[in-house]
């Protein structure tokens, strides 16, 4: 079972209908995702995934940009 790496997202791979994407292997792209996600308590592991709910049109090529903290800045999580 895997949980989405994005702060405050409670989507689990076994319980949700969304797809999950692994972090890119390319270092530049991976660092871009980390910067966009803004998780401060830890970095992603080799097994970390992000659900497609955080991508425009649920497409991995669009980078993860849809987050609660973009809508409500007061919801920034660790």
From TrEMBL:
InterPro entries: THAP_Znf, THAP_Znf_sf. GO terms for molecular function: DNA binding; zinc ion binding. It holds the Pfam family THAP. Keywords: DNA-binding, Metal-binding, Zinc, Zinc-finger. Residues 1-76 form the THAP-type domain. The keyword DNA-binding applies. SUPFAM superfamilies: Glucocorticoid receptor-like (DNA-binding domain). This is THAP-type domain-containing protein.
């Amino acid at each position: 079972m895997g949980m989405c790496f994005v702060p405050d997202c409670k989507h689990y791979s076994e319980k949700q209908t969304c797809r999950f994407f692994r972090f890119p292997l390319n270092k530049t792209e991976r660092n871009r995702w980390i910067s966009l996600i803004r998780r401060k308590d830890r970095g992603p592991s080799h097994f970390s995934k992000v659900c497609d709910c955080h991508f425009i049109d649920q497409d991995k090529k669009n980078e993860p940009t849809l987050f609660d903290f973009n809508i409500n800045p007061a919801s920034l999580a660790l």
